[in-house]
Amino acid sequence: MKYINIKSDAISLNVSKISMGTAPRTTESLNEKEIFYLMDMFMEAGGNCLDTARAYNDGRSEEVIGKWIKKQGNRDRVIISTKGGYPKQDCSKRARLSRKEMEDDLNLSLKALQTDYIDIYWLHRDDPEMPVKEIIESVNRFCDAGKIKLVGCSNWHVDRIQQANEYAEKYGKKRFAVSQIKWSLAETFEEYYKEHYEVVMDDQEYQWYFKKQMPVFAYGSQALGFFVKVAASGFESLDKEIHRRYGSEENLLRFKKVKHLASSNSVSISSVVFGYITCNKLPSVAVFGARNPEQLIDVLQAVDFEMDSAEADSLYNV
Q1: Is 3 a catalytic site residue?
Q2: 161, 132 in Cβ contact below 8 A?
Q3: Which of 3, 37, 56, 197 is catalytic?
Q4: Given the DSSP bridges, would you call strands 11-16 and 3-8 parallel, antiparallel or unpaired?
Q5: Count of CB atoms within 10 A of residue 72's CB?
Q6: Cα distance between residue 235 and residue 240, in whole Å
């Protein structure tokens, strides 16, 4: 297993370069016993970070993790990464970032996870109309209370992260130490992610993160299996949703590079696709989902693959 050190002020966490996600797409069809088994496998292989959110499965994802941690008695060995502030249906997609809304979500997460602190707490969405001062002051209050170790932002654009961190540095506050956005080797179409209020890695965002050397958690890192499915059955076999998100000529060119590198190194397609994130010159963690032991084994084998950052760059550049 590979690890990355994420730190801010006096707090430092060694996080596995792959983080096991518990989003609804992954966990809603599994029972507790099945999820427990997968988390046990992940930890035994050296993984240590579980990524979840208050909004996943109406809190069920956090509750399952909390029950598993209590059963295993391993809180000190697990890095809990969870999110709050996600819009509710009656909020017209407005992120819920008032101090009370954030505190309510945080307290519900702590209760569900059966813990008194969160290792990495993410603000799940941004509200560009809210001054960063208010947001930073609120999360610092939670940090000072010992409820949060590191603060992260999810689906924030870099200009807002810059504003928030400049305020934090000016007034001696804890800053955003890490960001989580949609990022994979396969580019997705702009109209799709805007429709879903997601922030996706592009060249401008990438250059900012690289300059700041700010760690990034990449969700959607496997692009819904785009490369694996094209390799197995061809481009025309892709279902409508995958084609809508990733069906571009540029991604087909990237697929050819992935296939060649996988063949020349005698590794799986997944190994190369994961390697683009985990071996990138930008400090990064790939968030993945697994619905059964076979999928998890494939991920764990894939993360062993090594390439240099120049090779990772060459995969993307078409």
Answers
A1: no
A2: no
A3: 56
A4: antiparallel
A5: 14
A6: 11
